[in-house]
């Protein structure tokens, strides 16, 4: 008798954007991965058959980490959302944000990608109406944007606050979480 693993049917899909591999682990561009790690701890990741991503299911929330590079993030996020039937309004994407200073967070639904190639890739698959948890990494000073985002994450980057914002989104809804997080000084 062959046993089959039950396919997850999460209500929320929480995705941290980043680049795979040790070279990128502690960079500003990987704050999405860092927030996911803060949320799941050392739980074991499961592969998603036929999709370049891994997941951890906790209740009605699936935490996802793509195995693609940032610029191809949609190639993992889109197929996972489709496979599990998660509406874009329940897809939470955590990413680095140049237009916010280090230590600041912002929650937003929809809008422009502001040149962020990871978000552009996700939007190609889902449209723009997904939830964004923007983690401030600040604007570059004296270096290119690429050098900045691939540089080491700054002390004071609010990984714990972003993780708490994700928990609040999934427990209380986007609007309540936005009112709480976006009002912080």
UniProtKB/TrEMBL annotation:
Name under which the protein is recorded: Peptidyl-tRNA hydrolase
Site-annotated residues for Discriminates between blocked and unblocked aminoacyl-tRNA: 19
Catalysed reactions, as listed in the record: an N-acyl-L-alpha-aminoacyl-tRNA + H2O = an N-acyl-L-amino acid + a tRNA + H(+)
Species the sequence originates in: Corynebacterium pyruviciproducens ATCC BAA-1742
Gene Ontology terms for molecular function: peptidyl-tRNA hydrolase activity; tRNA binding
Subcellular localization, as worded in the UniProt entry: Cytoplasm
Site feature: Stabilizes the basic form of H active site to accept a proton: 96
Family as reported in the entry's similarity comment: Belongs to the PTH family.
Residues that, per the record, bind tRNA: 24, 69, 71, 117
Active site location: 29
Gene that encodes the chain: pth
Gene Ontology biological-process entries: protein quality control for misfolded or incompletely synthesized proteins; rescue of stalled ribosome
Alphabetically ordered keywords of this record: Cytoplasm, Hydrolase, RNA-binding, tRNA-binding
Main location: cytoplasm
Cellular component terms (Gene Ontology): cytoplasm
Assembly notes: Monomer.
HAMAP family noted in UniProt: Pept_tRNA_hydro_bact
Lineage: Bacteria, Bacillati, Actinomycetota, Actinomycetes, Mycobacteriales
The keyword RNA-binding belongs to this UniProt entry's keyword annotation: yes
